[in-house]
Design a protein that fits this description.
Number of strands: 18
Radius of gyration: 21 Å
CATH class of the largest domain: Alpha Beta
CATH superfamily of the largest domain: ATP-grasp fold, B domain
CATH architecture of the largest domain: 2-Layer Sandwich
Number of domains: 4
Largest sheet: 8 strands, antiparallel
Shape: globular
Number of helices: 13
Helix content: 25-40%
Distance between the termini: 55 Å
Length: about 425
């Protein structure tokens, strides 16, 4: 049986998801680097596949250890391991995003310049390394603007800057030392994409899940989004999205243009698109599977994108023939409760048992219970609870979300 190296970290597919998806296709080699998010599940990796622990090793030594496992392909489902996986792929002579492409996919200022150049967006952007450069950037970009980490995911530390006071507050929170010193990490400041398009009761943006093989782009799905909570925190997704046919064509054409301009040759990508009065524009392109998208698409249409991504990494051209004309059986969703901006701690959560009994709800996960701290800047990692399920129609989903707000009461401090 073939083997595929899976560089693992926090991301869009768990060890168990990967093992289940690869059953009968390839033996997983779980490549396990040190993680910034705590201990990796090494015992589970060894139980469900082959464990290749590269913690503490440089790329050359890590590649030698992976090479000894004789992989036929390499992949990652973690945004945090794209750079490492690209470097390992070069050492191993295996196809993956090139280091240059990884830079375009993970560094927002570089990506935005490419997207602006191909017409997929028209958003002035500046790299920011401290308060002084942030003030210069605002003078050049204008207001309102968005300040966010140049490398990051999940809406972490993403600020809406509508005034110079907003900028000063964000700089105090994110940049260490006096105003003239550098930031602890690089940020970007870019003009905020104009809103105002009526998409109620849904959010005014979607994501597109795409598969690329030998440079040819196949769009798998458009994922709908619930409205954002301030400043730009996601509250969940559903599949399929509720979009008009003419909007769907415009969105898919735009994403094809973006992926082609970036130079994506193979793999699965997750691209966020905002509806603006002048037409759809790219928010950002991610060079990996979107968070929880595999669970949604599997529930809605029985399609396993983790398995598809692995087949692409193994060079299986036939894989693309199996993902055309996806038929949806239901509307699958993931809805997350987000704390208010000013909340510092969860005091009480009531009604989760009632929520679990609502028709259409399949699972509820409490992320932050009574006594646990909250901080809006952690973005997606700051949810109070997450609710999964499915409905027959978009109308039923909208009604269910309204009912959730009535059933679950959260008190904060």
């Amino acid at each position: 049986m073939r083997r595929i190296a899976v560089v693992h970290d926090m991301g869009a597919a768990s060890v168990m998801e990967v093992a289940a998806a690869l059953e009968g296709l390839a033996e997983p080699i779980f490549v396990c680097p040190a993680s910034a998010f705590g201990d990796q599940p090494r015992e589970l990796m060894a139980e469900l596949g082959r464990l290749c622990d590269i913690g503490g090793l440089d790329i050359v030594r890590a590649a030698a250890k992976v090479r000894a496992e004789q992989p036929d392909g390499i992949i990652t489902f973690s945004e945090y391991q794209l750079e490492r996986t690209g470097a390992l792929a070069v050492e191993l002579g295996l196809p993956f995003h090139s280091p240059d492409l990884v830079r375009k996919l993970t560094h927002k200022h570089v990506q935005r310049e490419v997207l602006n150049g191909c017409g997929a967006s028209a958003v002035p952007v500046r790299l920011v390394t401290g308060e002084s450069s942030a003030r210069r950037a605002v003078a050049e970009v204008g207001l309102p603007a968005v300040l966010k980490p140049d490398v990051g995911t999940g809406s972490r530390s993403t600020y809406r800057i509508s005034s110079h006071d907003d900028l000063a507050a964000a700089c105090r929170a994110e940049f260490s030392g006096p105003a003239a010193s550098g930031a602890t990490e690089a940020f970007v400041l870019e003009s905020e994409l104009q809103g105002g398009v009526d998409t109620a009761p849904w959010g005014d943006y979607v994501s597109v899940e795409s598969a690329v093989f030998d440079g040819a782009v196949t769009h798998l799905a458009i994922t709908g989004k619930f409205p954002l909570e301030p400043p730009f925190r996601e509250t969940g997704s559903f599949l399929p999205a509720a979009v008009r046919d003419e909007d769907e064509k415009d969105v898919l054409d735009l994403v094809t243009r973006a992926l082609t301009a970036l130079g994506v040759r193979a793999g699965v990508c997750h691209t966020e698109v905002k509806f603006t009065p002048s037409g759809p524009q790219i928010i950002e392109v991610n060079g990996r599977l979107g968070g929880r998208v595999n669970a949604l698409l599997s529930r809605a249409a029985g399609v396993d994108i983790v398995r598809l991504a692995a087949r692409i990494a193994l060079g299986d051209a036939e894989s693309m023939k199996e993902v055309t004309g996806i038929a949806y059986e239901r509307i699958a969703f993931m809805y997350a409760r987000v704390p208010p901006l000013q909340a510092q701690r969860v005091a009480e959560v009531q009604g989760l048992d009632r929520l679990r009994r609502l028709p259409g709800v399949s699972r509820v996960v409490l992320e932050r219970g009574a006594g646990q701290s909250t901080d809006w800047r952690v973005g997606r990692l700051g949810h109070v609870y997450i609710c999964f399920g499915a409905t027959e129609t978009h109308e039923a989903l909208a009604s269910l979300v309204d009912e959730m707000a009535d059933v679950v009461k959260v008190r904060y401090e």
